[in-house]
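Form 7-S
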Amino acid sequence: MNFYKKIYLMVFPLLIFISLIYFFKSIIYSRKLKILNNLYFNLPISFITKRDCNDYYSGLKNYLDDTYSVSIIDKKGFIIFEHNSKNLRIPASNQKLLSTSFVFNNSNIESSLKTSLYIDKKNNYYLSGSGDPDLLLNDLLKLVENIKYSKSIKLYLLEINKNASWPDGWSKNDKLFSYGSPITKLAVNSNSSKYININFISNKILDHLQNIYPNSTVTVDILDNKNVYKRNLKLFKFHKSNNILSLITLANAESHNYTAESLYKNSSNTWNENEYNKIYKWLKYKGLPVQNSSIYDASGLSRKNRVTTNLVASLLHKMTFNNNYNYFSSSLSIYGVRGTLGNVKNDRKLIGKFFGKTGTLSNVFALSGYLYKKDDILSLSIIQNSRQIDKNKVFSILSKVNEYDNCR
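Output:
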């Protein structure tokens, strides 16, 4: 009798625990309680499971070779199709889905980036940026016009060390073009012109102040940002960027590399170093499959990035439980409507139904996002790494998925 009692005492609590998990899962996937949805989003757990769907497997499995990875997860958390889903791939700009999700979760999307003018007790001025991608030279000149007259005017421009301007894995060729511009705090037009650098800005500001105060001795010097303690400074004036949500949309819909990097550095407080491990840790804490992934930047330009479609699709699925999911999905390109997918109209049935992100590098093409079909939202990720990239085939996969009946 004692033996059966021991078995009962061991098994009964386990059954209760399993029942509670299934009950919690059913409540979560009913999506009726926002509090529970957000709780699930923030907990390090995942209820994603596999369910074979014959239409998907019979229609896609033989259509794909080993250069492709595909993951498709339905609204209820079932993996309805996967192909090489755990193979590590170079994601190109699909990397932005990881970094902007991190920013979205760790920032106030209604706030802005500030380019600030500070003053110390000796009336020296300090100009510090936040990597505002839309900042103009005139914005900086107007800001320094707030400096008050003095016989001696000293202004310091705070900038990061140039060794931290480019993430690891950006090629020398990329750095020659505007899409590979250096990531700095005081950047005019996102550093799109290699001639308008911090030295150019310094000279322009010096000339401007000398014209305003011809009888003053004006000096403008550049200081390493990490050597200045802002707690000893008083905020004097500032210039605000567009709000964070607008910038996330710029990074995702238009695939703007500088903006993606700047947003991450502000959100993670890593301006003085190229450190992207915070994205990895955040993904892991969300209970997502980050094993063996390598994250070297926020924009996807680094050839050292390695992720799986399983990770990307799982992240997209879990983002649907964020209370502000609609804002996040609205930041993506829309098939046949806007952004990098705006001119794609291979399949008119997909226009306005797929919200996603493209990714393109040499030997890489990626397409990930949300496909809205009937009463379902599919979170999907497709990545091809090959010397023979076939973009049309990737989009044809999307069309096939749209045609199949929802998995029941």
